[in-house]
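User:
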Amino acid sequence: MSKKALIVWGGWDGHKPKECADVIAPALEAEGYEVVVSDTMDSYADEALMKTVDVIVPIWTMGKIEKEQFEGLDKAVQAGTGLAGFHGGIVDAFRENCRYQWMTGGQFVDHPGGKIPTQTIEIIDTDHPITKGISDFEIPDTEQYYMHVDPGVNVLATTTFTGEHGDASLYEAGTVMPYVWTKKWGNGKVFVAAWGHDENDFKTESALEIVKRGI
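Assistant: Predicted structure:
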């Protein structure tokens, strides 16, 4: 029996949520997943649907999640459903919901310099199944996320802020930011990759491969 993924997209249009879903859904189908794509968070409150899902891929920047929607999501992940996402679609959602931030392990606070010419992703765990065999790589013309990160996450890759982008008086040049991580939430596994500003980030082969493996 194939595994089932639920992609829920929406929120701020600047992160091209539908376009990103249109990249991730066929990538998962090619791996043998049954993929359900939804543009409403009411899917989280659909208990019958959630009981059939192996992994949830949220692509929803900012916005507000209603009590019943969050409770459905929280219950599913704690019961063992995976939660895997990228960029603002997972770590800049529902800014007023601290429990959601606890579940995901991080929260966006800024992207100094806005879009920058390139950023380097440094693999620090070369033995983990998500990153094994993948070398450090660059993503062009994208945002470099500065985040508040749970100190308990398992960091797989990082990025370094060089001080050349944005107001360097607001952060230390040389700051190393966790950029790919995993964590547990109840019986569920959580995966976060901080790139994915729009669908173009996934033209970088390693960026797409790590997200696929994380899911």
